[in-house]
From TrEMBL:
Species in which this protein is naturally found: Halarchaeum grantii
Pathway connected to this protein: Amino-acid degradation; L-threonine degradation via oxydo-reductase pathway; glycine from L-threonine: step 1/2
Molecular function GO terms recorded: amino acid binding; L-threonine 3-dehydrogenase activity; NAD+ binding; zinc ion binding
Enzyme Commission numbers on file: 1.1.1.103
Gene name, Swiss-Prot/TrEMBL: gutB
Biased composition (Polar residues): 1-13
Gene3D superfamilies: Medium-chain alcohol dehydrogenases, catalytic domain, NAD(P)-binding Rossmann-like Domain
Family indicated by similarity: Belongs to the zinc-containing alcohol dehydrogenase family.
Name of the protein this chain belongs to: L-threonine 3-dehydrogenase
Domain of life: Archaea
Cross-referenced InterPro entries: ADH-like_C (IPR013149), ADH-like_N (IPR013154), ADH_Zn_CS (IPR002328), ER (IPR020843), GroES-like_sf (IPR011032), NAD(P)-bd_dom_sf (IPR036291), SDH-like (IPR045306)
Keyword terms: Metal-binding, NAD, Oxidoreductase, Zinc
Lineage: Archaea, Methanobacteriati, Methanobacteriota, Stenosarchaea group, Halobacteria
Gene Ontology BP, a term: protein homotetramerization
Amino acid sequence: MRSVLLTDTNTFEHVTRERPDPDPDEALVRVTDVGICGSDVHYYEHGRIGDHVVEDPLVLGHESAGVVDAVGADVEGLTAGDRVAIEPGVPCRRCRFCTRGDYHLCPDVSFMATPPVDGAFAEYVAWPADYCHPLPESVSTREGALCEPLSVALHAAERGDVGVGDTVLVTGAGPIGLLVAEAVRAAGATDVVVTDVVPEKLARAEARGADATVNVAEEDLEARVRTYTDGDGVDVAIEASGAEPAVAALPDVVRRGGTAVLVGLPTVEEVPFDVHAVIDGELDVHGSFRFENTYPDAVSLLADGAVDVAGIVDFTEPLDRLDTAFERAQDPTTVKGMVRVADVGD
């Protein structure tokens, strides 16, 4: 089967590998669609993310979907020909986090495209069948692949306890930020304000229904938020950019008793934060890491037409042009690039 390996920084090698055989609890999936995540680009450019270092050739890509080709002897509920979204993180299922339902916090999780676990820029993937989620006919495999970033957004909205009538600030209009805006709207938010520094991305956010946008390279965020909320601040702020100024600004834009959620990863580990404002305003501050038990909800929302993931896609390239796809993904105006691996399933 065709696979693409990251062999060095900014270097892909197209190789032929043996097609995997599924274990008894696995499904063999013929991959059709893979999204290019910011983490993929970071590994491509730098060869590492924090403590995760690419020491051996690695297949990138963790936002994926495809068509079941075969299933292991113990698999029930999936058959060859089923279209599935592949949830990329498989936990140990035994630790205290897994047994209480927080499997995304499992310290021994195997996560696609995180060294040394290979990802989905390959023709076939063998993966535990209970992490392969069937797609209804109304949901394409492209949309199925984007259940992964949508799940990140749904989890962030849940961490913020977003509810009916809330005003929500989303900082960052990249793929996660735009999908967070969709997720909070689905949760009942009445007003959604989106920030960025790239005019094209702000235009995209406005076209997708943001009630207000703020170019923080040109405007004072706190002043705009205070004006928009009659001086109160937003009910919930979800930081999806990883930009240090956006993180530092959170205590200034959330109302007293409100909530701030951190989902974007800054390039540095420490960012100045006004702890006095957090205490005085009795703010709830939450981290949001990946997701858990979100894929069924993501698929249902897509089937109902309640969220739009296809609309964040700027381009699609075939697998044999993966180098070109990654070059295009690095354009600051790009929100999301996709790779089409096989023309089957849709």
